[in-house]
Amino acid sequence: MGKLKKDMQASMLATLAASSNQAQTKEDKAELGPSTSPRTIAGDGAMAEVEPQTGTIKSLKKAEVAMKALELRLTADDVIGVCVKGNLRRHGHVSSVVVSSGADEALIFDIGALSKKALKPLKRLLENPLRVKVMHDCRAASDALFHLHGIQLQSVFDTAVAWKLVHPDERQGSIKQLIGKYAPQVAAHLGREALELTMQRRTANLISNGRDAASTEIPRQEPSEAELTVEAKISKALVNAAMEMTPSLERWQSKFASRCEQQLSVFRDWPGQNIDALPLGQISRFEFSKDGSLCVLGESDVPKTDCLTLQQDTTDHAEDQLLAILPTEMRQAILQHVTSAGISLVELVLGVGRAPEVRSRSAMSTGIQADLVGEKQVSKEEIAAITIAAITSNIGKNKFNLQDRAGIEGTLHRISATRNQAGEIITLTMRIGRASRRLVQLLADVVADSKPVLFLGPPGVGKTTLLRACAEAVSQTRSTVVIDPAGEIAGCGDSVHPAVGRSWKDVAYSPKPIDRSEARRLAMGRALENMLPEVIVVDEIGTPGEAKAARTIAERGTQLVATAHGRTLRDLISNCELRDLIGGLRESTLGDDNPRYKASKRKSVTERASKPVFPTLVELRSSSCVVVHLDVAKAVDNILENAPAPVQIRTLDEQGRMFVEKREQ
């Protein structure tokens, strides 16, 4: 072994061992035995004759012999590569652990066949703070080994962390990218072999996973000998990659060691099963811990939260006060239609010479359904100009603002008017305002966080209802101001509706006639300066001026909770007026040495111009489904590079149970 390699290993060992910050007692050192002193082992005649171990280890005797043989071959500064296979979750299993010193045959431990006592040699090795283990993204393995077998990994050189530091301009490196760059000869050899194994596994899963589709657990699948052979080669390649990256990491020695330590504990110390340990496409039930952390449930887990209680709306018969302004016969006909159809009223549209139109949405639907109340119940002749005029009189003509919107005192309802050329009201669109905590229970972690969050969704999907519930939740612990020029969030009138909790509201008053967007923009700045809120809630950001005001609020450190029209993040990227909310766009020219140019062969690229105003974005798909982007900056960068963006799809079923799925889209 050359001097350079020795120096690299010594540097790596010193960095990671020092970061463990764990003082070893005499008993600890005694238990480590041969792991810390190869000379002691070599002095044992029985041990000196041990041959290098090959094959899969399934017994205590084989484990002890193999481990002692390994330690005989290792010097104090040698590092080992480790690959852990299985369903690496607290409700899953560890099927095998592959250990390689880089040059010799790999040791393959069959964890399922080994007893707790037989695992002790492996446990000593993995917990030894003086022996550096090279792994790629050790989070799930650390969590599973600790909670399933009581093994607490220490001193890990995480190549996923190393990749981010050494290649900051490249996308987060997969193990395939890592080996392709630092061990190309191994990558070329493994490429076809691994692809064939992957296709074989996928083919088998078409039947086995389809049969178990109703289960939230992944069936136990033991790796084949061929798969273990691939893992053995990968473990050796990891050691080579670590050696290659070590010189570049020395200037970040402290940062690297600290981040590797964090990788070991981030899943292990989570109050429950961390979602990032789940594979893509698996749907699992979840709940939130007391501190708001999302925890995935296993089949045997009993939720601590009564979801059936949480899903109930806080206002029953919310439309009664709105329908009270209608003529008696019309009101009765509409109520009869709503009751017989079993629908939840969203909007009611009344127009001169037309039958009333009832718009509704079921709890599990993704859109709004429109029905006409039959002529036998309400004739077209009944909705005449005089009828509209009478209803308008009940509302109060002076209640309509410059945008022809009005509300009913003490309610969340909104009434919009359309006029003819003479200025007379000919159509009334009545939006039912409801207070519901149903959907917000899917977003407890997002709401509890202090980061700005933006809700996207088409009209009528429930953005304002969700915004109202968020205002109620955050106002319990933080000073909250609702910017509400139309009274849609905090209710119409001077008093704040109970649906927004302890929030304060600003109705965006202006002594001069200005449009609602400008009034809202001015109110956002006024609230920030005069009321010193910790949270500002605003509905329907829609102009560059409002987007600029939103950035000002975010840069001051105030949490902004807002909505905007659009179905997906891609829609927002395409929106010239609002794309500043997600960082804006700019054209850049790449240099010849830029990894992105080498990959795409394109000199001119579109990239994100700045930090997003909203680091978290939620797409509302229906009243029971949301798509969550927890890292908007990363998602936008991926989309601009034509790469999939990671998301969480969270849903609520009819029983109020919460489910989550990781997906790339």
UniProtKB/TrEMBL annotation:
Matching Pfam families: DNA_pol_A_exo1 (PF01612), Spore_III_AA (PF19568)
Protein name: AAA+ ATPase domain-containing protein
Species per Swiss-Prot/TrEMBL record: Polarella glacialis
Gene3D superfamilies noted in UniProt: P-loop containing nucleotide triphosphate hydrolases (3.40.50.300), Ribonuclease H-like superfamily/Ribonuclease H (3.30.420.10)
GO MF terms, alphabetically ordered: 3'-5' exonuclease activity; ATP binding; nucleic acid binding
Entry-linked InterPro entries: 3'-5'_exonuclease_dom (IPR002562), AAA+_ATPase (IPR003593), P-loop_NTPase (IPR027417), RNaseH-like_sf (IPR012337), RNaseH_sf (IPR036397), Spore_III_AA_AAA+_ATPase (IPR045735)
Keyword vocabulary terms for this entry: ATP-binding, Nucleotide-binding
Region (Disordered): 15-42
Domain AAA+ ATPase: 449-588
Keyword set includes Lipid metabolism: no
Keyword Transcription regulation listed: no
Record GO biological process: nucleobase-containing compound metabolic process
